[in-house]
Amino acid sequence: DFSGKPEHIEAICDSKPEVFAHNVETVPRIFKRIRPAFRYERSLDVITQGRKLGMVTKSNLILGMGETREEISEALRDLHEAGCDLITITQYLRPSERHLPVDRWVKPQEFVDLQNEADEIGFLGVMSGPLVRSSYRAGRLWATAMRKKGWEIPAELAHIESSGSTRQEASSLLAARS
């Protein structure tokens, strides 16, 4: 998070990435335990700085580490208010025995509900599902945000926009069950 220093964030934005991403990952109550080297408010400020510099901004929430449903909603609102355009929401998968155990397995319907909630909050692009990862279908999310902002998609990247809907993963799991 570059310690939230504006000059470092400006240097990144000056290089003109397509998306300025900083993954918050979790909710305020358990943030320090999950991300001890970072601060929740500073992470939100990093996103705000990127947005003020004209960037399409993105973050990620990982579920199943001890957060409540209400806390997830609060974090989504915080991220949107901070200027986050794109959000990915995923299931925590414990990488090793040394890492935090999975607190709960999020059901596909909750991912669909969270996608709908994030859409209603006003995110320009949402990817939500148990196997979604932070960079999952990043091009599609970016193209969705560009279109919703009314910004031009460069010709060499136009194919990304027409590569299908971003509403899949958890919703497709549920549809397959019907």
How does this model look, in words?
The chain is 46% helix and 11% strand. The protein has 178 residues and is α/β, with parallel strands linked by helices. The protein has a single domain (2-177), classed as Aldolase class I (TIM Barrel), CATH 3.20.20.70. A four-stranded parallel sheet has the order 1-2-3-4. Helix 4 (69-82) packs parallel to helix 5 (108-121). The protein is globular. The N and C termini lie far apart (43 Å). The model has no long low-confidence stretch (mean pLDDT 88).
Characteristics of this structure?
single chain, 178 residues, alpha/beta, TIM Barrel, four-stranded parallel beta sheet, globular
Give a brief rundown of this model.
The protein has 178 residues and is an alpha/beta fold. It is 46% helix and 11% strand. The protein has a single domain, classed as Alpha-Beta Barrel (TIM Barrel), CATH 3.20.20.70.
Under CATH, the homologous superfamily reads Aldolase class I
Q: Can you write the helix and strand succession as a string?
A: HEHHEHEHEHHH
- Spatial shape: globular
Helix share bin: 40-55%
Number of helices: 8
Mean pLDDT: 88
Task: Write down the CATH class.
Answer: Alpha Beta
Query: What is the number of E strands?
Result: 4
Could you tell me how far the N terminus lies from the C terminus, measured between alpha carbons in angstroms? 43 Å
Major beta sheet, strand line-up: 1-2-3-4
Report on the biggest sheet: 4 strands, parallel
